[in-house]
């Protein structure tokens, strides 16, 4: 089996079925782009969880002057109540669960608010009196949040106990849904790619049925007849996979690295390094699907 002959046959097949080959490339490109996007989303979730879960705190908000909560019917928190809450946080019963804690006054809350929303008009309209005092508690084990909530929710002077992880979970759930949607779309597109590869191979073999018939008569083996057709599907899928990898790399490089990572410096984003991890798997997936589809098509539908 001569390499030059096989490559010549592959080139002939690609030229004769150019429109179908381009279709395979595009469908493979789109499907693997969705697969890669879903994988990168999951990496982003994992990275953000690892980064933020170590930083998030439990916020114990104290009653304010105009607080209408059922826990604050007696008015704003008093000095005595504030001191009692601080003593509880430092007590031996709570210490095994609390890594550290700090008190945040109304003025400090306003400063943090203005820093967080410095690019918004809200930072100029909100006053310190509108923001609650709070204790910010870092837990030894964030999963023990319910213990802290039960201990302090009914304490005098406490308005509400909030686990900041709940806010992150809502964001993560949205990203998870988006990644599942991407996987679903990718599955449909991969099926289309597999069917297109099979159709392309069948058409290519049909157009060259005379040549393959002659080759069979002169004793060519089955593998030498099938290999050019299989390579056609693999090459088309490989081009699509490379395009998908390139687009994902460019998106992360220019959108994430050069934009989001600069604008949101306190957030842990994925980088092009994660794309380089995903890309080989996308290429392998494209090649395997195209190869299997080509072999199945040749064995079941074509007599070459």
From TrEMBL:
Concerning Gene3D superfamilies, the annotation shows: 3.30.70.3040
Q: What is its main location?
A: membrane
Membrane topology (UniProt): Multi-pass membrane protein
Report if keyword rRNA processing is assigned.
no
Alphabetized, the UniProt keywords read: Cell cycle, Cell division, Cell membrane, Membrane, Transmembrane, Transmembrane helix
Pfam families, per the entry: FtsX, FtsX_ECD
Which InterPro entries does this UniProt record tie to the protein?
ABC3_permease_C (IPR003838), FtsX (IPR004513), FtsX_actino (IPR047929), FtsX_ECD (IPR040690)
What Gene Ontology terms for biological process does this UniProt record contain?
cell division
Name the residues that span the membrane: 20-41, 174-197, 234-256, 268-292
Q: Ranges for the FtsX extracellular domain?
A: 56-161
Q: Which residues form the ABC3 transporter permease C-terminal domain?
A: 185-302
**Subcellular location(s) per record:** Cell membrane
The terms describing its cellular component in GO are: plasma membrane
Q: What does this protein do?
A: Part of the ABC transporter FtsEX involved in cellular division.
- What protein family does this chain belong to? Belongs to the ABC-4 integral membrane protein family. FtsX subfamily.
**UniProt subunit comment:** Forms a membrane-associated complex with FtsE.
Q: What is this protein called?
A: Cell division protein FtsX
């Amino acid at each position: 089996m001569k390499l030059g002959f096989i490559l010549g046959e592959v080139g002939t097949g690609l030229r004769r079925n150019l429109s179908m080959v381009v279709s395979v490339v595009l469908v493979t490109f789109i499907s693997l782009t969705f697969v890669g996007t879903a994988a990168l989303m999951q990496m982003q979730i994992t990275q953000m969880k690892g980064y933020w879960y170590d930083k998030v705190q439990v916020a114990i908000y104290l009653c304010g002057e105009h607080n209408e909560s059922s826990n604050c019917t007696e008015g704003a928190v008093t000095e005595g109540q504030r001191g009692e809450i601080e003593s509880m946080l430092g007590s031996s019963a709570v210490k095994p669960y609390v890594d550290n804690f700090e008190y945040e006054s109304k003025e400090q809350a306003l400063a943090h608010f203005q820093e967080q929303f410095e690019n918004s008009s809200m930072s100029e309209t909100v006053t310190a009196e509108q923001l609650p005092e709070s204790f910010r508690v870092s837990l030894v084990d964030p999963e023990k949040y319910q213990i802290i909530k039960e201990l302090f929710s009914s304490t005098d002077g406490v308005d509400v106990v909030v686990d900041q992880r709940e806010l992150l979970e809502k964001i993560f759930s949205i990203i998870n849904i988006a990644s599942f949607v991407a996987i679903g779309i990718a599955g449909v597109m991969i099926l289309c790619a597999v069917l297109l590869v099979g159709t392309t191979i069948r058409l290519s073999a049909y157009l060259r049925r005379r040549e393959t018939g002659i080759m069979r008569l002169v004793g060519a083996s089955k593998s030498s007849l099938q290999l050019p057709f299989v390579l056609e599907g693999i090459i088309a899928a490989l081009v699509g996979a490379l395009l998908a990898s390139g687009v994902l790399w460019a998106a992360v490089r220019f959108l994430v690295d050069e934009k989001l990572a600069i604008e949101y410096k306190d957030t842990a984003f994925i980088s092009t390094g994660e794309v380089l991890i995903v890309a080989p798997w996308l290429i392998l997936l494209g090649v395997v699907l195209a190869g299997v589809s080509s072999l199945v098509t040749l064995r079941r539908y074509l007599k070459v």
